[in-house]
Amino acid sequence: MLEIGPGQGALTYPLLQCCDRLTAIELDRDLVPVLENRAPAFGQLEVINADILEFELSSIASTRKFRLVGNLPYNISTPLMFHLLESADLIEDMHFMVQKEVAQRIVAAPGDSSYGRLSVMLQCRCLCQYLFDVAPTCFKPPPKVDSAVIRLLPLEQPKYAIGDAAAFARIVQSAFSQRRKTISNSLKSIMDRETIAACGIDPGLRAENLGIADFAKLSRALTQ
């Protein structure tokens, strides 16, 4: 069990009571002794002082996959999940509290206003579930935004054959970089209309109208 951003331990100590042993990654070095000094009353806690955006899960010796949990800092939640995707094969599951708007983007379907790059990249690699809302009144002091808890279950293989992972990421990023443009316009620097049409996709559609299978087709075409 690995907690991201334990802070002062609001989730840490209840987690320790359930699992007896926990590893936490905390950026603020001043909080490390605070967490470690109180932890023995609940269980065995290892605190790693590191920036999770630069931390590699593979650096922790383990014979089992990691279960990740955390109330993520809202300003880094999106880049953090992209970073964790790089180690998806080491992860059993992830349970995070994020800003409600981010949670809606993660589970959004094609055609939804929230559907975008984050939706496609995460849903291709994970089973994404929106679990429940968390009201501002649950926090002290209350934030100005609503929150939600999500569950991400990494798949053994991407949901669709995407060819080269870097090509897939490039296609998705380019497609949504100017989401009001048609696919043929947003991808014109890397793919022509004829190639898009050959994938069975209307070049006049916008990125928000394409499913993950469509982006996988485009990625395979670019790889080839």
Characterization of this structure:
The protein is an alpha/beta fold and 224 residues long. It has two domains: 2-154, Rossmann fold (3-Layer(aba) Sandwich), CATH 3.40.50; 165-223, rRNA adenine dimethylase, C-terminal domain (Helicase, Ruva Protein, domain 3, Orthogonal Bundle), CATH 1.10.8. It is built from nine helices and seven strands; from the N terminus they run βαβαββαβααββαααα. It has a seven-stranded mixed sheet with strand order 3-2-1-4-5-7-6. α3 (77-85) links the parallel β4 (66-71) and β5. α3 (77-85) packs parallel to α5 and α6 (165-177) packs across α9. The termini are far apart.
Amino-to-carboxy terminus distance: 40 Å
Question: What is the radius of gyration?
Answer: 20 Å
Write the CATH fold name of the largest domain.
Rossmann fold
Which regions are unreliable across 5 or more consecutive residues at pLDDT < 50?
none
Largest β sheet strand count, sense and barrel closure: 7 strands, mixed
Write the H/E string, N to C. Answer: EHEHEEHEHHEEHHHH
**Total domain modules:** 2
Structural class of the secondary structure composition? alpha/beta
Helix segment count? 9
- In the sheet with the most strands, the strands line up as 3-2-1-4-5-7-6
Overall helicity? 25-40%
* Name given to the CATH homologous superfamily of the largest domain: Vaccinia Virus protein VP39
* Proportion of residues in extended strands: 15-25%
CATH architecture of the largest domain: 3-Layer(aba) Sandwich
